[in-house]
Specification:
This protein has 333 residues and is of the alpha/beta class. The protein is built from twelve helices and 14 strands. The strands form four sheets. Strands 11-10-9-8-7-6-3-14 form an eight-stranded parallel β-sheet, covered by helices on one side. Strands 1-2 form a two-stranded antiparallel sheet.
Length: 333
Amino acid sequence: MEYTTLGNTGTTVSKLCFGTWRFGKESGGTVETDREEAHELLDACWEHGINFIDTANVYGDPDGKSERWIGEWLADRDHDREDLVLASKVYFPFNGRGEPGPNDSGLGRKHIRAQIEGTLERLGTDYLDLYYIHRWDENTPIRETMRTLTELVREGRVNYLGASSMAAWQLTKALWTSDAEGLERFDVTQPMVNAAQYDEVGDYLDVCADQDLAVCPYSPLGGGLLTGKYDRTEDGSIEAPDGSRGSLDEMFDEYYATEQAWNVLEAVESVASEVDATPAQVSLRWLIEQDRFTCVPIVGARTPEQLGENVGAVEIELGDEQFERIDTARSSE
């Protein structure tokens, strides 16, 4: 495994982060990743040297199974907490007990204070390395949110702050508020970014580059399209394997299977054949090698074998021409 400093922080993380959004997630009446499978995947992360684990209070809702299972794994395996970098999130409706009440969502002081307590309890830890706001809250002044998060840092409950999906102007407003008010600021961001969906968040990434913020992209493989497992029919529709996201998600074509994405996949596959790697490995390496900001992709493997393939991304190298070929494929007709 290769390691890097997380943006402008003093913390070192693996060049891949493991995402646990599938832990306890129910889909079609079944759980995508159950407790035993979750622990097997965390064991595989440990063996591969991945020390950066991403979760959220709402993963495995209604009772926070993802955070809980990670905490149980830490206790069962008797791992040293200091060997791991743990990240979680707050925003969406959640109370861990049942139907959320009127103050069980958003980024107000009351909700953030309640959620950090539950997150730490489920994870079985005294602090988080990284705490993201999961979304922007239009109903709460950003000053209140940043003041509350700053209190958590100063109390030792959180080391660093992060921001997930939002507009570039919202991220800029939050950073300006922190600077003007003398508050802790965001050090890490988590937008949806991959080789086929980069330009859509270009302004956001410009802010990250200018402010030296680390970028931890979710969906780095474009919903699986950039793994090469999908085929395209003559009429342009997608042929999706049974059980894949493309077969289950009605919005898959709109979000992922765009003309631009197919162009990028073609470039990715050509590079993969040249470097003796899989399309997934090349797609991840393209992100890791971003030079404008620290980029640590979040991978959400379903099996230890799939995780092992993803880890192979840190072992390959892309030449300048290969990197640029993928980069320019987004604009090809």
